[in-house]
Design goal:
single chain; 566 residues; alpha/beta; Rossmann fold; 3 domains; seven-stranded mixed β-sheet; four-stranded mixed β-sheet; 20 helices; 13 strands; 55% helix
Length: 566
């Protein structure tokens, strides 16, 4: 066993040498990096809820956003921003990812590795065994090297094609680290150490016996690179080939803790672990701290941006899906003029991905003649589609994505609020109308002139007379606030009162209200085109009646035909 003990001593010395090497070199400056925030100040401001618009999970679901971008490890609404610098920074990064698909492919490969590092850290924090901590820290630095190699292999060939500051800086840093002398030395030493450590196959235990030949005290003599083999005493004596074989036993091997009860098994396992821990405690614990320090200094930035990476990957996949169908995406132009919203070729990306054929595009703008719109039209004529499209354009922009339109000029909102039909449990206590009114009250409690409000078939739970009265009051309320608003409704009498409402709004200097109509083509076919015009409810009602044979003329023809058949 002298050779085994000598091998163990060599391992401990090797650990000490690596301690010194890593300790000298693990002093590289910290690399600050974010895919979503151009500076520490902007990240801290976002964390402090500054320049973060109010967008609820309900809103994200209502407009179809949460179905388009599904995140597992973070909350989508946490990424909304109203900071123009942050929006521009993200858009630049997304353009780079769309132009260089290798970036997203690299992130997809590295994300599971980073997840494993995080899991190892959680396991290490909950472990009280030195050997466990040591092996976990060894695995952690292996994973760190794997992550850096993956990033190096993926980003270095793209270095000359990258245009965004974020990805140029990231590629340069990864290259600097992976091509440095200390990184190469660490890599080489880690490979050698891994072979040595994972070559440990057995331990030699010394046991003292009492006068009855029962085990009294025991301890670990050595940690060995070879496993023990079964043997017996006669073979050991008679077969000379065993003379110098320290790993063939004088008796057959038995399963660990054979014939012992659970308490005895636990006690033996604890005793053995404690003995091994005592051997490793000094060198390994010091080595683990240095390794962790090295990984923290050089890889922590990747762990911190893991949620950002997931968000970027999901968003890029969505935009790639839209582009693959030939759908336009544009970089938004951010306006300093409050309440600006001008879109050309606007479409609903959720609908565009769900249907076959060409998607319908619309031009849409809020302006001084129409900061609030009453949108009417036939059922399933596109009212909800365009209402959600307006919300999605704003949401894409304020997440930093390219926008589903040909052109988009926008002043970021301080909140996006929706009032869509819901199956809320509050209807039990308040009734459906009471629940709708309560939610509208919540919007008024929070929205400002810089907000965007989307209402789809609000107040549909009551009769037309009551709904029109309440809706008119609501429209005047939003006129008073002055926020960008779309009210999609089946209440054509409400749209007919717009001139009257504007006269009332003028008395208090409110924002003007205008009307939009979901166009219906001749014969009652829906076009999903939205026109800025006064509605004529009778025209498309007549088309629909004719289409289904319910006009008086058609009904008369049916009656006369029946008489003729009789």
């Amino acid at each position: 066993m002298r050779r085994a003990a000598c091998a163990f001593g060599t391992l401990m010395l090797y650990l000490y040498i690596i301690d010194c090497t890593i300790g000298r070199e693990a002093t590289m400056e910290e690399f600050e990096f974010s895919l979503l925030y151009p500076s520490r100040a902007s990240r801290e401001a976002h964390a402090a809820a500054q320049a973060r618009p109010h967008v609820s999970a309900e809103t994200a679901e209502s407009i179809g956003l949460s179905a388009l971008i599904k995140l597992k490890n973070s909350v989508l609404t946490d990424y909304f921003t109203s900071d123009p610098a942050v929006i521009a920074y993200r858009a630049e990064n997304f353009r780079d990812m769309l132009q260089n698909p290798g970036i997203a492919e690299t992130f997809v490969r590295v994300l599971p590795i980073l997840s494993d590092i995080g899991e190892l850290r959680r396991m290490s924090a909950s472990s009280d065994r030195t050997t466990d901590e040591y092996l976990l820290s060894l695995s952690e630095i292996e994973l760190y090297i794997s992550a850096m190699e993956t990033m190096h292999e993926g980003l270095t060939p793209l270095a000359d094609k990258l245009t965004s500051k974020a990805f140029r800086d990231l590629a340069a840093y990864i290259r600097k680290v992976t091509e440095s002398d200390y990184y190469k030395e660490l890599n080489e030493k880690l490979r050698e150490l891994t072979v040595r450590v994972r070559d440990i196959k057995s331990v030699t235990i010394g046991v003292n016996l009492d006068s009855t030949l029962r085990a009294d005290k025991c301890g670990v003599l050595s940690i060995n690179p070879r496993p023990f083999k079964s043997g017996d005493t006669i073979d050991k004596i008679l077969r000379m080939s065993f003379a110098n074989d320290e790993y063939t036993l004088a008796a057959p091997l038995s399963p660990f803790a054979k014939g012992q009860n659970d308490n005895q098994k636990t006690a033996m396992s604890i005793a053995l672990s404690a003995a091994i821990n005592d051997i490793f405690k000094g060198s390994v614990r010091a080595w683990k701290k240095i390794v962790q320090s090295y990984v923290l200094d050089n890889a922590n930035f990747l762990l911190e941006v893991m949620p950002e990476i997931e968000f970027m990957i999901c968003a890029v996949r969505l935009m790639e899906s839209l582009r693959s169908r030939g759908l336009p995406l544009c970089t938004p132009v951010l306006s300093d003029t409050p309440r600006t919203f001008r879109a050309k070729g606007l479409y609903n990306p959720a609908v565009a991905l769900a249907i076959e054929g060409e998607s319908v595009e619309n031009d849409f703008a809020f302006d001084t003649d129409g900061m609030i719109y009453v949108l009417t039209g036939p059922n399933r004529g596109g009212k909800s589609v365009i209402t959600c499209a307006v919300g999605l354009a704003a949401a894409f922009c304020q997440l930093g994505l390219l926008v589903p339109a040909r052109e988009f000029v926008y002043a970021p909102a301080d909140g996006i609020y929706t009032h869509f039909p819901t199956e809320s449990g509050d209807t039990v206590d308040k009734g459906r109308l009471g629940e709708e009114c309560a939610r509208l009250g919540e919007i008024f409690a929070h929205c400002t002139a810089d907000s965007l409000v989307l209402l789809d078939e609000s107040l549909s739970s009551t009769g037309a007379f009551e709904a029109s009265y309440i809706a008119a009051e609501v429209l005047l309320g939003f006129s008073k606030v002055g926020c960008r608003t779309v009210f999609s409704t089946h209440l054509h009498t409400l749209a007919a009162r717009v001139d009257e409402l504007n006269r009332d709004a003028a008395a208090f200097g409110g924002a003007r209200i205008d009307t939009l109509v979901a166009k219906i083509e001749e014969g009652g076919r829906r076009s999903f085109k939205i026109l800025r015009m006064k509605p004529d409810g009778k025209s498309y009602a007549k088309d629909i009646a004719d289409k289904y044979g319910l006009s008086f003329e058609k009904i008369t023809e049916t009656i006369e035909r029946k008489k003729g058949d009789a």
